Please model this.
Amino acid sequence: MTETDQPEQDSFLPKFVSTPLRSGHGMKIGIFAGIHGDEEAGTLATEELIAWAAGKPEELHDYELHFFPVCNPTGCHLGTRHSHSGLDLNREFWCGSIEPEVVFLEAELRRERYDGIISLHSDDTSDGCYGFVSGALLSEHLLEPALQAASEFLPRNEQHIIDGFPALRGIIKEGYLGILSAPPEQRPHALEIVFETPALAPMDAQVKATVAAVKRILAEYRELQAYAANL
Model:
């Protein structure tokens, strides 16, 4: 496990990398949390996942995981959704933003060309877990088992409209402009999943649900990749 960071005024944006057993032979996944500074569950869950990956478990032998636990360091310090500049950084991507956090993360996204991107959030208007899918068609088939895994700790949001979007059993296929995502020009496009916990639920349950969801996504993605390779 290696760590890098990018200075950002009086703070920094940490990055941790877990490499596969065979260098250069891993599926590359970026896991991003803390883009909203008042959503602590994703950051805590990412820290647990970093510790898990550091142990080099067998189920990660073919993964290269890049963890970004605090994507909005000033917002996390202030305990606010927005950064110190007053902007929602998750509406600033791929639109020419000069926000230093966004500039750094866009450069990472372009340089690394992730096969998959998992973004972790909490929603204080939701009474259950849900998520957004986009990019590769596989995304939808990965979020469903992830929500099943999370349901051991927190319920699924079954509403037909969530966060203003049509939803089917907690899965939303639309989304906001400007969110953290793969570069628009990347081909093939990365699979993209945004996983949301109910922010008013106990923090411990949110963290456990998030960790379970991410681990399930990774397990299911490997199986789907192996199946596709044998077609």
Remarks:
- The CA atoms of residues 130 and 170 lie 4 Å apart.
- Residues 2-229 form a domain with the Aminopeptidase fold (CATH 3.40.630.10).
- The chain has one domain: 2-229.
